[in-house]
Amino acid sequence: MFSRNIFTFIDKFDNYAGMKTQKFQTGRVALVAFSHFVHDVYTSFLAPLLPLIIEKLSLTLTQAGLLSTVMQIPALLNPFIGLFADNKGLARWLVILSPTLTAISMSLILSASSYYVLLVLLFLAGISVALYHVPSPVLVAKYSGDKKGRGMSIFMTGGESARTFGPMFAVAAVSFLGEEHFYLVMGFAVLTSVLLYFTLEKEEQKTSIKKNGSLKASFHEIKHVLIPLAGILSARSFMHASMGIFLTVFVERETGSLWLGGAALTLYEAFGVAGVLSAGTFSDWLGRQRVLFWVLMVAPVAILIFVFSTGILKIIMLAVTGFTVLSTTPVMLAIIQENAKQNPSAANGLFMMISFLVRSVAVIFAGIIGDVAGLENMFIVSALIGFFAIPFLLKLDH
For the stretch 246-284, what's the b/e string if a residue is b when 16 or more beta carbons lie within 10 angstroms of its beta carbon? Predict the structure, then answer.
């Protein structure tokens, strides 16, 4: 009741400030963003704990890369989840339950007795990830009115903040609890789901589009933006995968310190938060394509300098890489929601499916390159592939 009153007060303050039409509902956007934070804290566990998992189960980098891919396989269901959400209006329940479902699997990964048990746990986590990420941006878009870029920035800030906090939380938790009791961290997600149940109003009755839509209709509605965005996602995926999955391993092997590896990933994600928070809002003012152009040009250059530099310049380039690589998502989500009028959840499902699939494929190839040519060459190849996003951006008819 206390939390519900807080968000009611925020929305009333918006009205008092001259937003009587509630074009941007701050309280509800913030609430969904908070659930995004909690959910993604658990999904961030894999990268910082990967060195421990590799050592415990004697994995190659290719096997390690496959872990993330298995977690992405349920993304194939994203369009169907979106279509179901459009027709049935289950956004509230999916947002409430998914943090706990994800936390159960991710809190048990250090208890896995074999590589195959670990694959099953990550596959189950991938299902709950899909159940969460498809409908939640649709709620945010509807709560954001004509400021969808701002809304997506706040929403994605929740996720990126989780990936900033999550790695250090995971390392601290395993240091304090030990691998055998690491599962206890799932309790935070259970408490969050209870909180969401009592604070998240039954807004899906007002925001969901209850009708018999189809994936074919949804695709035709957004294909003019979805196809170029798929090309951008494909080119960006190697940068996103290599930095997000293998950065901790790279730093740990260079320094011999798991803490420094976690700190590097935290720095990368922290500046990703800044990029996510600003990119969507700037795209409301400056235009989606203009913002995407600058970040997609700077990101691969920053990775190349990161690889070849040392000392403070290396740290600066790591920060710039996080700011640019991670800032594209809220802008692209805004583009999808602006063009998906009839089946917004299904459209988001199509976008998320493509995003997850191309990234999972990129992780496998990045792992193979890392095994064959070394991690430095893996980062170089990823950066060079990143430049191919620009031709697709020029074809974006928004």
Answer: bbbbbbbeeeeebeebbbbbbbbbbbbbbbbbbbbbbbb
pTM score of the predicted model: 0.72
Helical segments of the chain, H only: 2-16, 26-43, 46-57, 61-72, 78-88, 91-106, 115-133, 136-144, 148-177, 187-199, 204-207, 215-255, 258-286, 288-308, 311-325, 328-339, 344-373, 375-386, 389-394
| Residue whose token pair is 């003012």 | 285
Is 36 in contact with 159 (CB distance < 8 Å)? yes
157 token code pair: 């800030």
47 to 103, 166, 256, 275, 366: CA distances (angstroms)? 15, 10, 16, 21, 14
d(CA 383, CA 302): 8
Q: Which two tokens stand for residue 138?
A: 């649709």
Q: Are 395 and 228 in contact (CB under 8 A)?
A: yes
Cα distance between residue 327 and residue 295, in whole Å: 7
- Report d(CA 154, CA 51) in Å as an integer: 31
Q: Are 127 and 74 in contact (CB under 8 A)?
A: yes
- Listed in sequence order, the residues at least 6 apart from 69 whose beta carbon sits closer than 8 Å to its beta carbon are 360, 361, 363, 364
110 DSSP 8-state letter: G
Q: Which residue has the tokens 């960006």?
A: 236
> Which tens digit of pLDDT belongs to each residue from 13-69?
344 433 344 578 888 888 889 999 999 999 989 888 888 888 888 888 778 878 877
What size, in residues, is the chain? 398
CA 195 from centroid of its chain's CA atoms: 22
356-390 confidence digits (pLDDT tens): 788 878 888 888 888 888 888 999 999 999 999 99
Domain boundaries, the chain: 7-15+27-394
Cβ-proximal residues to 35 (8 Å cutoff; 6+ apart), any chain: 95, 96, 99, 132, 136, 158, 192, 196, 200
Cβ burial of 114 (10 Å; 0-12, 13-18, 19+) is exposed
249 and 376 Cβ atoms separated by less than 8 Å: no
Residue with tokens 């040392």, as numbered in its chain: 310
The domain defined by 7-15+27-394 folds into Growth Hormone; Chain: A; (1.20.1250)
